[in-house]
Design a protein that fits this description.
Length: 656
């Protein structure tokens, strides 16, 4: 599998949150080695930086500078860790059942679960957590089996590292401590040894959690409690598509996970897992003591707890999950281990050959899907849902990552000979991410543009409330008879441009009628009016969006831009300062504050904020041009000429 990965890892695009994950690692690295406080200024999503730090260390050791090299390295390392966890699963199953075939089947089933396989390249948060969680489960077998102190310390460190990736890692800590407590009560002869093992386990957990999560260093207990509390109240107000209904993140039904799990896990492994759960439950009620004492059967109880407890906590606490069930991917290996237990029992019967045949058929069907739909394995659905034309796209969130933008951009570069190709899309981040994955010589050819100036419109349909209204796509990719990405040629005539804008506003107003508390359509309507120069209407809709979502950095910036265009400069400056508090690593609001002070003829303040923008990102070019203009207006001609020369390196046409 590693050889296959070496030949194919470059085929996967960049997902929408990969740059943010990398920034998390960079902030932590800079805090550790340079004392940079940006880690604490940035808005925390209450995830640890454990795995991101590891990736940054690899990046620094290899001396990677180019964005393409960095993202490809991250994809490959993330996948290798996933394969390592699969090997640990192989060893675990081999030790449990002394069956090389079953162990090999476990490895193949895990690795060839389509959604997990694709995510193991570009999902740098959920998949590393799954991998480390599974490795910890494997080590727990040996720790309890051999009862050695170093194994319990290592197990604690793995649980700490897992929690330093995702806070749900604490669940495994609680289960291991529960079993150690049971051993303390039931095995009087080993009280001292068990107590020492428990202390070493907790010590390993605390040490590794602290080391892998620098955000906790200033106040370990309070920051950890804050992150744990945030788990059940994660502020996500986006929208998901489930069974044909668009639902707000705050009103996702408890059936969300069960539905996604049942329609995206291959049928045989789903049935085997359910049957295994029933079998474990029956055996537990028959002989509960066997499952509570330090026996091989207790491992099955651990796997059942690791599957059901996180799922039930999400349901009971109304924790927000979205983008299929990726936040709970880590419960799949425990479920698979229970499925393998059931298959192991079947292989002891006279139906062994039938079971082997069915397993082979399921693997063949999954393998065929993956081969035919490479590299879009994350779009796998089993046959419990319709695969009719457009059925999946109309009922479920499909290619929400934006990774398919890579293939669309490759198509553009191969078929359009223009020196610069201008592309508009719903989420610019997904476009920018995949431009960063292009070879350096191609990056300058693809530029984001507003729809009025764009040559193409690109969509992966996720969150895209207004599908492009013109003709058939110039290029599209389909999986299971549903389009996952489309590229449209944009008509340039004024009539069709007006049709597009009117359609956009009408569709967004329908969205508002369906859900008046959704800030996004208000903000987007405000943007349309803003681009048309209708600033009064833009202020009305941008203001409504801001009232509904005052901490959304994009909405804050949009409202500030409206104020700036109306020369309501104090209001604009105040909002740009709020934007900086929400996202201090963005140079644009610093630049816009500098520009506002320039218009007020407050040149000292303008210079200060423009230099702040450069400090945040020296490659961001607008501050240099504005500094040249500011110094020129202030009569500091030498400095004006200096920055004019710098600005001309990026924009040869710039002149004072």
């Amino acid at each position: 599998m590693a050889i296959v990965a070496l030949f194919t890892f470059k085929d996967y695009g960049v997902s929408f949150d990969e740059p943010e994950l990398r920034s998390m690692g960079i902030y932590s690295y800079d805090y550790i080695f340079h004392g940079d406080q940006k880690l604490f200024d940035a808005v925390s999503d209450h995830h640890g930086a454990g795995f991101q730090l590891l990736l940054v260390f690899v990046e620094k050791i290899l001396g990677l500078k180019d964005t393409r090299d960095i993202f490809l390295m991250r994809h490959l390392v993330t996948h290798i860790v996933f394969l390592l966890s699969g090997f640990c699963l192989y060893v675990l199953v081999l030790k449990l059942y002394k069956d090389k075939f079953l162990a090999s089947l476990g490895f193949i089933v895990l690795v060839l679960t389509p959604r997990l396989y694709a995510h193991s390249f570009f999902n740098g948060g959920d998949m590393p957590f799954l991998s480390v969680f599974l490795i910890a489960l494997s080590v727990s077998y040996f720790a309890f089996k051999k009862e050695k102190m170093q194994l319990f310390f290592a197990l604690g460190a793995l649980c700490g590292f897992a929690t330093g990736i995702r806070i749900m890692g604490i669940a495994l800590l609680m289960f291991i401590l529960l079993f150690l407590l049971i051993d303390l009560i039931t095995d009087k002869e080993k009280i001292k040894k068990t107590a020492i093992n428990a202390l070493l386990f907790v010590a390993g957990f605390c040490l590794m959690l602290y080391l892998s999560w620098p955000y906790l260093w200033k106040s370990p207990v309070s920051y950890f409690v804050e992150s744990l509390s945030a788990f059940s109240h994660y502020p996500w107000n986006g929208y998901i598509l489930l069974n044909g209904q668009h639902l707000n993140g705050e009103s996702i039904p408890w059936t969300y996970f069960p539905i996604w799990f049942f329609v995206t896990v291959p049928e045989l492994w789903l049935l085997a897992g359910i049957a295994g759960v029933v079998l474990v439950a029956i055996n537990f009620f028959k002989k509960p003591a066997t499952f509570l004492k330090n026996t091989d059967e207790r491992n099955l109880l651990l796997y059942a707890l690791c599957f059901f407890a996180p799922v039930m906590s999400v349901i009971i606490l109304h924790s927000v999950i979205y983008n299929d069930w990726r936040h709970l991917y880590f419960v799949y290996p425990p479920f698979l281990l229970i499925a393998l237990y059931f298959i192991h029992k079947l292989l002891q019967t006279k139906y062994k050959m039938i079971v082997l045949g069915i397993c082979a058929l399921q693997l063949a069907l999954v393998g065929f899907f993956m081969a035919m739909n490479h590299p879009f394995h994350q779009l796998y659905f089993n046959n419990l849902v319709s695969h009719a034309e457009g059925a999946l796209n109309n009922n479920y969130d499909m290619e929400y990552w934006g990774a398919s933008y890579k293939q669309a951009l490759d198509h553009l570069l191969a078929t359009d000979n223009s020196k610069v190709i201008r592309v508009n899309c719903y989420f610019r981040t997904e476009l920018d991410n995949n431009i960063a994955l292009l070879p350096e010589e191609d990056r300058q050819r693809i530029k984001y543009a507003e729809i009025e100036n764009a040559d193409y419109y690109l969509t992966n349909f996720w969150g895209d409330a207004y599908h492009f209204p013109f003709d058939k796509p110039d290029y599209s990719i389909s999986v299971l008879n549903s389009n996952i990405v489309c590229l449209y040629k944009v008509p340039k005539d004024a009539t069709n441009q007006k049709i597009y804008k009117d359609r956009k506003i009408a569709t967004l107003k329908n969205t508002i009628d369906a859900d008046p508390k959704n800030a996004d359509p208000y903000s987007r309507i405000g943007n349309v009016y803003f681009k048309n120069g209708q600033f009064d209407s833009a202020e009305v809709y941008a203001g409504k969006a801001l009232a509904l979502s005052p901490n959304d950095v994009d909405i804050v910036n949009n409202m500030a831009a409206v104020y700036g265009s109306q020369r309501k400069l104090p209001e604009a400056i105040a909002l740009y300062k709020r934007s900086i508090q929400l996202k201090p690593d963005n140079p644009a609001p610093y630049t816009n504050i500098g520009m506002s002070y320039f218009f007020e003829a407050n040149y000292d303040s303008a210079v200060y904020f423009l230099n702040q923008a450069i400090a945040v990102n020296k490659d961001f070019t607008p501050p240099y041009e504005l500094l040249a203009k500011t110094y020129n207006a202030a009569g500091k001609i030498d400095l004006a000429k200096k920055y004019e020369a710098i600005a001309q390196k990026n924009n040869p046409g710039f002149k004072l």
